[in-house]
Amino acid sequence: MTAATRPLTEGMFRDRADRSIVLIGGYSPSSGRTHFPRLAACPYTGADDVEEVELPTDGTLWGWTAVTARPPGYDGEVPFGFGVVELSDGLRVITRLTVADPGALAFGQPMHLVADTLQTDEDGTAVVTYAFAPASGDPHGSAA
Amino acid sequence: MDVSITGIGLHPFGRFDGVTVTDMGVTAVRAALAEAGNPRFQAAFCATVYSGVAAGHKVLGALGLTGVPIVNVEAGCASGGAALMLAAHSIANGQYDTVLVFGMEKMPKGIIRSSFFEPWREQGGLAVTPAYFALRAQRLMRESGVTKEHLARVCVKNRANGADNPNAMYQKPTTAEDVLASRVVCEPLHLHMLCSPNEGAAAVVLQKSERGDGAVRIAAAALRSHLPGSVLGEATPMSGIDDTGITPPSSLAADAAYEEAGMGPTDLDVVECQDTDAARELLGYEELRLCERGGSAALLESGATEPGGRLPVNPSGGLLAKGEPLGASALGQVVEITQQLRGTAGPRQVAGAGAGLAHTVGRGANAAVVILKR
Q1: Domain residues of chain A, as ranges?
Q2: CA nearest B202: which of B289, B308, B332, B60?
Q3: Of A135-139, B43-47, B202-206, B247-251, the least confident
Q4: Distance between terminal CA atoms of chain A?
Q5: Nearest residue on chain B to A70, judged by CA atoms?
Q6: How many whole angstroms separate alpha carbon B342 and alpha carbon A42?
Q7: Chain A CB contacts of B118 below 8 Å
Q8: CATH of region B3-110+193-373
């Protein structure tokens, strides 16, 4: 039996049939710009024509570090990886990383979107967030 | 503009248990007003972020100086620059002759918790300020050839300067070895490469310039916010685009200030810039156009920004030595530059300084650039 889960926040990503997830962004046809997470208006022009768009699940690593001390308001594990992934359409997204050793990561390495359990609530509900992992091999291991 | 700084005052920056933020504001305001000869002021602008409702009113209320308009100003790390801009332009535009500007802060301890971020960002570990600083530092290292040794050198420089500043939180010099031996907070940033949020206050009295008064003048006071699209800017959105063509808010503010002052970066003799972390100072060199893009490591290596160099940066010790009381920070820089231009900076004095720039940038994003000249 699978324990109950809840997303970190509504509307940021959705589950797919194969248990993978996909990020939900916003696209403004008038500005031609995509953003994440989806907002009511285009953050580049203020246009109110934002449409929901599923973002690419693959990208490359553009920036990374690890948070070593538990920050206020956060109940997950430390250290944890944190960085920016440039998606295949060019959008750069702030993200949790599954690798918490900065020395095991390299600029430009292929990354893939995964669901990651952040913490477990008192009632046993797992809080799930999006994260990026190296595209091949052990998601918590070292880069090739 | 014809606006002079006729009084300056500080409450030291550090940690002061039992001293309220109002007490600190009173100390700085009293000193600044006394130096200016206790003039009647027609308005007051108070910079603070964490002090709550009507913080400036409480300070002036404690001194029996209410009745005039008192405006409390919040613009993140640039709050003091914002308050100074409003005050200076109100005089330049003829609204007032004399305006009091002050700022104070008593920061929470530890990693700064900010209502800027939605609760889910905190819960998801996506609101960690030093982690954003680290990503920006890493980018600077990748794109400008900056190394950890350069970051340590900034710390050594500013802490050495702070050793000569009796109002700084840290008055002991440090070594590159000690900086690099301090624990890693967020790679590549070590603990001693990050400034300490703390407490303090600063105040300045601005008056319409009288011909031949010999006072330090405000040549420019500019405030700007971010343009959309930069994922690692101080606005910290959750996504952005390739931002190589997006001018950062510090450059927007600097360009506006240079234009307002009719001066350029080569006309400056001394700079106080935002060194929240060691890499932020180097990024400031580039954003304030003290060097070309990618040239910050070379400028540091040249020794130009050291005491005795062509353009000393953060002779006060910067935030790395003084700590960062948000609302007081920018005005603390203005007090330092004023002392430098008056020639009263003691062991920190930059010889013959005739023009100086003060720069703050932070959450919002907000960036302020103030240029003073003799």
Answers
A1: 5-134
A2: B332
A3: A135-139
A4: 35
A5: B125
A6: 49
A7: 9
A8: 3.40.47.10
Range B187-213 average pLDDT: 95
Q: How far is CA A104 from the centre of its chain?
A: 19
Tell me if residue B251 falls in helix, strand or coil: helix
pLDDT in tens, B55-75: 999 999 999 999 999 999 999
The closest alpha carbon to A101, from A139, A142, A60, A69, belongs to A142
Interface touch A43/B127, C-beta < 8 Å: no
The CA distance from B224 to the nearest CA of chain A, in Å, is 17
**Residue to substitute from B138, B189, B239, interface A, most A β-carbons within 10 A:** B239
Q: In this predicted complex, what is the ipTM?
A: 0.93
Distances (CA, A) of B339 to B13, B204, B273, B300: 17, 12, 16, 24
- What distance in Å separates the CA atoms of residue B102 and residue B148, rounded to the nearest whole number? 36
- SS3 call for B225: strand
Residue B212 touches partner A, C-beta closer than 8 Å: no
Confidence of residue B116 (pLDDT cuts 50, 70, 90): confident
Q: What is the pLDDT of residue A140?
A: 62
A26 touches chain B (CB under 8 A): no
Tell me if residue B33 falls in helix, strand or coil. helix
Site of tokens 């208006």 = A41
Taking an 8 Å cut-off on Cβ atoms, the answer to whether A92 and B241 are in contact is yes
CA distances from B164 to A39, A67, B174, B348 (A): 50, 34, 13, 6
Closest Cβ–Cβ partner in A66, A68, A129 for B124: A129
Whether chain B has a CB inside 8 Å of the CB on A44: the answer is yes
Q: Are A27 and A51 in contact (CB under 8 A)?
A: yes
pLDDT of the residue at B236: 84
Sequence spans of domains, chain B = 3-110+193-373
Closest B-chain CA to A94: B238
- CB within 8 Å: A67 and B128: yes
Please give the angle made by the CA atoms of A103, A109 and A114, to the nearest 5 degrees. 95
B73-106 pLDDT tens trace:
999 999 999 999 999 999 999 999 999 999 999 9
Residue A143 has pLDDT above 50, yes or no: no
Do the strands B43-47 and B98-106 form a parallel or antiparallel pair, or are they unpaired?
Answer: parallel
Rg (CA), chain B: 19
- Substitution target from A23, A94, A109 for chain B, most B beta carbons within 10 A: A94
- Pairing state between β A126-134 and A5-7: parallel
Alpha helices in chain B (DSSP H): 21-35, 55-62, 79-92, 119-123, 129-144, 148-162, 176-181, 249-261, 278-287, 296-301, 318-322, 326-342
Is A107 near chain B, with CB under 8 Å? yes
Cβ of A94 and B239 within 8 Å?
Answer: yes
Separation CA B356–CA B335 (nearest Å): 11
Q: Using the beta-carbon criterion (under 8 Å), do B120 and A83 form an inter-chain contact? A: no
